[in-house]
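Pipeline run #58 for the internal structure catalog. This entry was flagged by the ingest filter as a single-chain record with no existing model, so it goes straight to prediction. Upstream metadata was stripped on purpose; only the residue string is passed forward. Reviewer on rotation: M.T. Logging verbosity set to normal.
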Amino acid sequence: MAPSSTPKSRSTNAWLRMSPMPRAIGAVMLVIGGVWFFQGIGVSQGSEMSNNTGWAVLGGAIAIGGFVLLYRQNKITKAMIDQEQAEAARAAEVTEPDGS
């Protein structure tokens, strides 16, 4: 039997295939935004940021921005995976012998 010329399939998990930079930036934005939000609404006490509506709004906006960044990057990566799978399926159809 001849070895297959197709490369090994890559992971279909979008989180693992996502570029590390947007993943890191989105995660940091979520954490920092969450901390600022909870300090702003008074859950976390002990600083000038506590019970300050401005920090709550800013933190919420940054956390939402981090979530949106992660969500959009995940959708882009899933589309890329779907495209790769479709191309691999088309290539397999073309290279398969028809049996005659």
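catalog note: The helical segments are 14-17, 20-40, 53-95.
catalog note: DSSP finds three helices and no strands in the chain.
status: ready for reviewer M.T.
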